[in-house]
Design brief:
By secondary structure, this protein is of the alpha/beta class. The protein has eleven helices and 26 strands. Strand 5 and strand 6 form a beta hairpin. It is globular.
């Protein structure tokens, strides 16, 4: 009986389990879970703070999932060493797990800069896991003033989740705009204005230089008092296990389209990996939930002796703050790179499509994201724009832009 070991217990692990079981119903699967929770949907942690969901509804799979899948889960355990020659993994309690196939789905961890005086701050938190959320929830009161360092997706979702639970929120970032990794200035300003209208204050182009207990001294010289500090500067992929075992890593663990690492019989998937972004043809860390699941499933199939590839990964973000929704995907090429931009604006909505060499490479939608999956599929499938009615698609996401034959294939018989 084949021995499978999965290091990590997030969405990529669930995909891996299901990939294995699609081929091998009997092999032994052991999951090493540093978190003491069954697999849950991590993007829902801000909605938990808002009271829009609960711990039961956050579960990514049913309560009997691991039993049905025939898995053993070692909760509260962490792998500390991979011996690829002996094909075993050492855990932090000295347990030794042997494997035939191993999948590393260790995700990422918060990046915390070496702020002077950070040790003097008593109530400081990250916002990446369910445990982070539960700890933050227990620390805030209606009278709390919260300082969030980082105006990216993690920091802003934390701000939204806390808004009605605290007295005030200030978000700071060295960047000159919110969501700087996915939005340009104009798009970012739309989101910032909406967030400000809902009570979030910003200090942009500025960040903490040092801390004196419950006061942040900013690079600008301003001082910001707070009761609770949230560090949402960014994340780093957990690559150390594979690197120490001799595997190739960059910003993430390097994988091919079969999710194989450079070490035989070791696979990897999810936020800890670096694979090809087909929208720009470059290796990137694509830390988003849909990719994590699809990568995990691909890895599991191949671990069990099947033949699968996942070769159409792209960056995607579907976000919303206080009722204003946005979706981004792909890469944005400017004129200097041979790209073209189509833009359409109205009050409260913005639509941008980026094309290059006859293909859609990326888009930004704010306000109206209905049926945006049509645009995503054009990027993933590299659909030549001259084979569809792209002028119609610029105006509205509709299946009518495709030929009748394509509609039958893509949309289940709708003609």
């Amino acid at each position: 009986m084949k021995q499978y070991v999965i290091l990590g217990n997030g969405v990529a692990a669930a995909g891996c389990i299901e990939g294995i079981r699609s081929i091998d119903r009997n092999g032994k699967i052991t999951v090493v879970s540093e978190e003491k929770h069954p697999v849950y949907c991590r993007p829902l942690i801000s909605y938990y703070l808002e009271g829009k969901t609960d711990l039961e509804r956050m579960k990514y799979r049913s309560g009997d999932y691991y039993e049905k899948m025939g898995c053993e889960v070692l909760y509260g355990k962490k792998a500390v060493k991979i011996d690829s020659a002996a094909k075993n993994v050492t855990l932090n309690d000295d347990t030794l797990l042997s494997y035939d196939s191993l999948c590393v789905v260790t995700g990422s961890r918060p990046f915390v800069p070496a702020f002077e005086g950070l040790d003097s701050v008593e109530n400081k938190f990250s916002f990446l896991t369910l445990d982070d959320t539960l700890a933050l929830e227990s620390a805030v009161t209606k009278d709390s003033n919260v300082l969030i360092i980082g105006a990216g997706l993690i920091g802003l979702k934390c701000a939204e989740g806390l808004k009605n639970r605290v007295s005030g929120i200030v978000v700071c970032d060295l960047a000159d705009r919110v969501l700087s990794s996915i939005l340009d200035k104009e798009c970012a300003f739309m989101m910032q204005k909406h967030l400000e209208e809902n009570g979030i204050r910003f200090l942009l182009g500025d960040s903490a230089k040092r801390f004196e207990k419950n006061t942040a001294i900013m690079t600008s010289g301003k001082t910001v008092p707070f009761d609770v500090l949230v560090l949402a500067v960014g994340v780093r992929a957990n690559t150390e296990l594979v690197s120490a075992a001799g595997g190739e890593v960059n910003r993430g663990i390097l994988i091919n389209s079969r999710m194989e690492t450079s070490i035989p019989d070791i696979y990897s998937a999810g936020d800890c990996t670096e694979g090809e972004d087909i929208s720009c043809g470059q290796k990137r860390v694509l830390a988003i939930l849909p990719n994590a699941y699809m990568q995990g499933r691909c890895a599991g199939v191949n671990m069990a002796g099947g033949d699968a590839v996942f070769d159409n990964a792209i960056p995607m973000n579907s976000i919303g703050f206080f009722g204003l929704h946005a979706m981004t995907a792909g890469s944005y090429f400017g004129k200097e790179d041979g790209g073209e931009l189509y833009e359409e604006k109205s009050e409260g909505t913005l639509k941008r499509f980026f094309t290059k060499d006859g293909y859609l490479t990326g888009f930004i939608l704010i306000g109206d994201t209905e049926r945006a999956g049509i645009y995503t599929s054009l990027i993933r499938e590299k659909t030549p724009l001259d084979t569809i009615n792209f002028e119609l698609l610029k105006k509205i996401a509709t299946s009518a832009a495709f030929s009748s034959e394509t509609r039958r294939k893509k949309f289940g018989g709708i003609v």
